């Protein structure tokens, strides 16, 4: 519980420093977004503010599980954008979001990557070899990319075998940093993250064996800025926002069969 309080306090201190800007409303719209969205969502924030100059947006980025913890302890969040359905399902089950506002707006892929000059890994099974000592991924119980990785490795029958080699990052970005700096022999990251380090990492394979990586968004229940929040959710689905997502390597989510 102390950790939860510290997480919430950190967000509250940041929000306390925010004030009116550019003639915007007295309080900005608070969006909590998954760490893997940082570049695309920052650009979308700018586009939304240009389309709605009377409003201002503040985006709080962290691992999806950490963002949910913040909401659970009462952080003043208006829109929740995790990187997986499971985290949003947990928020919905706990009565923390407006279920009717929930939308799926983008999708991603999970990749196995290695340092750009590495030659010892050419497929998933190679991770079990003696030449591979450390493999990075997001912490599976808090980072969706880590959860997707655990699903993949479990289905491939490799999870228990590789577990002693696994290095957990606090976010998928940290897993990417580990492999880009050569601190691990391989890592599991999103396709959008691998693009950011194309000079430092090499893609080995596109992973399957996990649930579709689809990003949802929803209003936090009883958030004070309902109109702004609904406008932001609508903007996420607009052609302008979808073009931004595509430029950053995200995909259009496929309808459920």
TrEMBL record:
SUPFAM superfamilies: Periplasmic binding protein-like II
Keyword match Metal-binding: yes
Domain of life: Bacteria
InterPro entries, sorted: ModA, ModA/WtpA
Pfam families referenced in this protein's UniProt entry, alphabetically: SBP_bac_11
GO molecular function: metal ion binding; molybdate ion binding; tungstate binding
Signal peptide: 1-26
Keywords: Metal-binding, Molybdenum, Signal
GO process annotations (BP): molybdate ion transport
Residue numbers binding molybdate: 36, 64, 145, 172, 190
NCBIfam families, sorted: modA
Quaternary organization: The complex is composed of two ATP-binding proteins (ModC), two transmembrane proteins (ModB) and a solute-binding protein (ModA).
Homology family: Belongs to the bacterial solute-binding protein ModA family.
Protein name: Molybdenum ABC transporter, periplasmic molybdate-binding protein
Organism: Solidesulfovibrio magneticus str. Maddingley MBC34
Lineage: Bacteria, Pseudomonadati, Thermodesulfobacteriota, Desulfovibrionia, Desulfovibrionales
